[in-house]
Amino acid sequence: MHTPLLQVQGLVKRYRRGWLRPRTTFELQADFSIDGPTILGVMGANGAGKTTLFELITGGNQPSAGRVLVSGQDIHRTRYEERDRVALHYHQSYQLRAFRRTRPSFMLERALSSRALVHLFDEPQFNTQDGYIGFMLDFFRKLRSEGRLVVLCLHPNEPVHLEILAEVCERFVFVQKDSERVSRLTFADDLRTLSRQAPVAAYLGDLAPT
């Protein structure tokens, strides 16, 4: 039986405020599966929940519901110090965020892999002057050729960012927060198809492919 490389099953992250009358201030919902190695491009406005999604996939943030399986292993049931052997989150600023520890690490499962199977790049800062973009794209392709899933999150503010996504990514997802402050994911197999969605076209503005 084939085991998908990444399964996000009924994942919900809900933030609430208030003690007597708690109200939801933000909610992220995600449910999808990635069968095998690929490079997935992620876009979405600031505050839409992209980084929260990455934190949930790498186990740095506890879900309110649902689970994340990497090659069948539940990331949130894996020992804290071994989660980077399962999924790795590359922060833009390289700041590390503390895990919310819910039980002693020794009570959790050991990582089943020696190297991360899922690599999530959270708005990497591309240097356009010294060939850094080519270096990074080659690195993404190398990871993919080694059987790994690469997730590349960009917040496009100039055409080169969309060119990067179009050149290297094989599938795309848009994270959108609605008026009820609930964020959901929209997938497409190519950037042009995704850009035809009205919210995506509005988000990209003049950068939207014609």
TrEMBL record:
Coiled coil: none annotated. Keywords: ATP-binding, Nucleotide-binding, Transport. It holds the Pfam family ABC_tran. GO terms for molecular function: ATP binding; ATP hydrolysis activity. Residues 31-93 form the ABC transporter domain. This is ATP-binding cassette domain-containing protein. It comes from Hylemonella gracilis.
